[in-house]
Write a structure and sequence with these properties.
mainly alpha
Length: 172
């Protein structure tokens, strides 16, 4: 053990020339706080400093800490209010957006129905016109066919003779 360490202990004997204790000597620890007149002087100095520093240092510092805590609490409350307002605005915006989307879908459906009705009307008119033209063409073709049959009916014998003559090579 070194001298520094031993110096904190009180001994009942003395150190030898080498700086070691005699093994038969007991060591006793020194008290940490000595209660004597200086203890009361130090207490008085502490109280005097508290009386002087309380209005000069501690009271303003505590007031600043209180204002800071109140400002933080106020800012926290304001942030919560703003968050609640933002949330309600977001809900309102979503509702308006949903309503606008529904109106657009309804308008699109109305336009689609109107367009389909106009398309069906145009298609029906085109079909009626095509049917009318087809009927007129059938009547005209039937009339032409009848005219051709009537014209050919008188020439059937002449044509039959001509075909036989060409096929057989002699008149029938």
């Amino acid at each position: 053990m070194g001298l520094q360490h031993i110096a904190s202990f009180t001994t009942l004997g003395t150190l030898d020339a080498g700086g070691t204790l005699d093994p038969g000597v007991a060591l006793v620890a020194a008290p940490v706080v000595d209660i004597d007149g200086t203890f009361f002087v130090q207490g008085a100095i502490f109280l005097l400093l508290m009386l002087i520093l309380w209005p000069l240092l501690f009271k303003p510092w505590l007031a600043t800490q209180q204002r800071r805590a109140e400002a933080i609490a106020g800012a926290h409350t304001k942030a919560k209010d703003l968050e609640r307002d933002a949330s309600s605005l977001l809900v309102e915006h979503d509702e308006k957006l949903s309503a606008a989307r529904d109106r657009a879908n309804d308008l699109r459906a109305d336009i689609r129905r109107d367009e389909e009705a106009a398309q069906a009307k145009t298609l029906a008119a085109a079909r009626a016109e095509a049917t009318e033209k087809a009927d007129a063409a059938r009547i005209r073709i039937a009339a032409q066919a009848e005219t051709a049959r009537a014209a050919l009916a008188g020439r059937v014998d002449d044509l039959a003779q001509d075909i036989v003559k060409r096929l057989l090579g002699r008149p029938a």
